[in-house]
Amino acid sequence: MTADLVYVVAGASLLLAIVLPDLLHRWAISAPMVLVGVGMLIGLTPLPDGLPLDPHANRAAIEHTTEVVVIVALMGVGLALDRPLVLRDRATWGTWSPTWRLLVIGMPVTIAVVAVLGWAAGLAPAVAILLGAALAPTDPVLASDVQVAGPQTGDRDVDEVDEVRFTLTSEAGLNDGLAFPFVYVAILLATEGAVSGWALEWVGFYVVAKVVIGVFAGALVGKALAYVAFRSSNRALRVAERGESLLALAALIASYGVGEVLGGYGFLSVFFCAISFRSAERSHDYHAAMHEVAERLERLLTLFVLLVLGIALTRGLLEALDWRGIAIGLALILVVRPAAGILALAPWPGRQHGETALTRHQRWAAAFFGVRGIGSLYYVAYAAGEDASLADDWLWSTIAFTVVASVLIHGILATPVMTWIEERTSHHR
């Protein structure tokens, strides 16, 4: 019965993934909002038991399903970014300056504030830190309404991009991997005890080594695949010439696998593989074809997960939710993330030449639209697999509530606010 129900849900998700974009594009309603709502309604029906809804009994399935969704999204995000980032060229780093600020200032501040709120609510220190780390990264999966649409190729100017959308897209591409060191703080605190026993290991290995390995592994895989696809002496290997876009799947699987095998963060490997591949033959239409494959697969997987999440919400996932979880979730969305984003993006005196600056309205939009989503579910499932004490019912309920609240609040406001920002920006050009 379980397999049959999964087929039914997967089929419904595929159908909705095909028809919803065109049905909803005129309204301030996103496909994730509809899928969660439909799932909740299904959960209220006398549906036979069998779907993997219990996060404790199905932790591994949740971890690996959400893991696949995130890496597919990261490949699509990396291919969508037109602005180059060359690790050896510091001039390109300045054009990503709002992204670095949100990562270096905004994300740690968000983690710290949410962790303190969790500790004040009575959580153990490790669980409170995990709550902050899981909810800190913005989501590359559910934020399509506020991200860049896709790679500009052909004869178009690939450097023309809306600053808010670029900032949110690049932030989402990077912070899913960069939140991992903070997740490991929770894991090490739960498994190893006192911070003094593992602080140096955490800085040297989990913060520095795993990040560096993940970045360079992904960049090398991306360069190697780009060379094969565009410049190989063997015509059969130059897949870009015949538009074989399934290379996107090979690239995301290979880069993630190489990054993880070498001991790095696979999420960073996938993202840097994508932007490294994107840097080759930047105007080639092949990038758009690869992005379309990743985007379609991401849409299907995302809607499947959201439909199951919606069913779980009305089948007991929120049983442990109380006013503390509601308050923390809403505070994160409405206060903590916007404040941390404004702090990170505030104008600095003596801005360096070549650094990108956002207008006041763009800063507010980039600070507010920190969409939470599938990555948060992944981090909780991953940490719970490392130590059972982190598999807290209240934590699962609070994370699920926050994700759904983000889907609703950001989904309703995304279209009108982004349209207003873009109209205002074009008016002042």
From TrEMBL:
Keywords: Antiport, Cell membrane, Ion transport, Membrane, Transmembrane, Transmembrane helix, Transport. The keyword Methyltransferase does not apply. The chain crosses the membrane at residues 6-24, 31-48, 60-81, 102-135, 178-200, 207-230, 250-277, 297-317, 323-344, 364-382, 394-421. It is a multi-pass membrane protein. Residues 15-420 form the Cation/H+ exchanger transmembrane domain. PANTHER family: CNH1P, NA(+)/H(+) ANTIPORTER 1. This is Sodium:proton antiporter.
